[in-house]
Amino acid sequence: MTAETTFTASAKIPAPATPYQGDIARYWNNEARPVNLRLGDVDGLYHHHYGIGAVDHAALGDPAHSEYEKKLIAELHRLESAQAEFLLDHLGPVGADDTLVDAGCGRGGSMVMAHRRFGCRVEGVTLSAAQADFGNRRARELRIEDHVRSRVCNMLDTPFDKGSIAASWNNESTMYVDLHDLFAEHSRFLKVGGRYVTITGCWNPRYGQPSKWVSQINAHFECNIHSRREYVRAMADNRLVPQAIVDLTPETLPYWELRATSSLVTGIEEAFIESYRDGSFQYVLIAADRV
Ligand SMILES: C[S@@+](CC[C@H](N)C(=O)[O-])C[C@H]1O[C@@H](n2cnc3c(N)ncnc32)[C@H](O)[C@@H]1O
Ligand SMILES: CC(C)=CCC/C(C)=C/COP(=O)(O)OP(=O)(O)O
Ligand SMILES: [Mg+2]
Question: Which of 121, 126, 168, 245 is the most exposed, having the fewest neighbouring CB atoms within 10 Å of its CB?
């Protein structure tokens, strides 16, 4: 193997840029919730994002059946993978020679899916050495380590050359950073004509201010959810022009309602369900062209 393919995240861990980023690195280094690991075990794609789409009640069958919980886990995982597929649908044409960036890549499930779909290179950045090691180990197991690589790196200050990246995304990772700083960095490394996509939860300016449920989600994950207005403004200020904005709130509610009935609940289900229902919080995809 070359030095490139034997890369491990823990070989050289940069110091956190801020005390907050140190907190977030610790949070994800210590994270091992069954709702994430048991879903990932279904097919080896490990996600830290939520699901979209209708629940397949026929596939779930009778709740009294001994296999029901296993089927429920598979169904939640199917909906999470459908979310990642929907994000990848919006990246535009990607060739095998292109490089994509997954900003805030978690355990790397979306990166594997992107490589399988496009045959391209995918570079992931996360604050967590445990996550980057996990993603690189999975890539080695799948023998795609020459194309899929995770590293410990601040997404606001990446090593990618100016104009070198065909498309990039944030999947539920924008709520940990200042949006102006984030979009300035994507805009720097994206090619002109390249595509940026995010799926995120944002508070709804029509509601007024962040609701108590949004505050509860922030406290639960130590994050800072932005408003929909902030996204549009920060993109406009950084040469990212929205090409599609999709309100996925109705599409994600079935996932949450199903998850709330499972043995893998974490306690945050009520906040998501109530805030989506009262309109204070929205689950959105924004795809933007780098102009
Ligand atoms: C909720 S997880 C999402 C993971 C992944 N996108 C997915 O869909 O499975 C949030 C991720 O954002 C990362 N993150 C937060 N702030 C970051 C920063 N400043 N630089 C790089 N990664 C960051 C965390 O390390 C974590 O991997
Ligand atoms: C939409 C919003 C506001 C997301 C916040 C970021 C976040 C923690 C996403 C899910 O991670 P996870 O998969 O580790 O969480 P859980 O353990 O709840 O499944
Ligand atoms: Mg999860």
Answer: 245
Work out which ligand 2 atom sits closest to the CA atom of 217. 3
Residue 2 lies in a domain: no
Give the Cα separation of 48 and 246 in Å (integer). Answer: 20
- Residue tagged 């044409």 (tokens): 93
What is the pLDDT confidence band of residue 2, given thresholds at 50, 70 and 90?
Answer: very low
Number of domains in the chain: 1
- For residue 12, the model assigns a pLDDT of 77
Is residue 232 one of the residues assigned to a domain?
yes
**Which of 105, 172, 251, 272 is the pocket-test mutation for ligand 2 (most atoms within 8 Å of CB)?**
172
Q: Residue 201 C-alpha to ligand 2 middle, in angstroms?
A: 10
Q: What is the pTM of this model?
A: 0.96
> Is the pLDDT score of 138 beyond 90?
yes
- Count how many Cα atoms sit within 13 Å of the Cα of residue 95 in the half-sphere of its side chain: 4
- Residue whose CA is at the smallest distance from ligand 2 atom 11: 48
Residue 104 is assigned to a structural domain of this protein: yes
- Ligand 1 atom with least separation from CA of 48: 9
> Of all atoms in ligand 1, which is nearest to the CA of residue 126?
22
Give the separation between CA 283 and CA 250, rounded to whole angstroms.
8
Q: Which domain holds residue 179?
A: 9-290
> Ligand 3 is a single-atom ion; what residues have CB below 5 A from it?
36
Q: pLDDT digit string (tens) for 75-123?
A: 999 999 999 999 999 999 999 999 999 999 999 999 999 999 999 999 9
ipTM comes to 0.99
Report the CATH number that the domain containing residue 151 is assigned in CATH. 3.40.50.150
Handedness of CA 50, 159, 119, 132 (dihedral sign): negative
In this structure, what DSSP letter does residue 99 have?
Answer: E
* Separation CA 170–CA 17 (nearest Å): 19
Average pLDDT, the chain: 96
Evaluate whether residue 141 is within a structural domain: yes
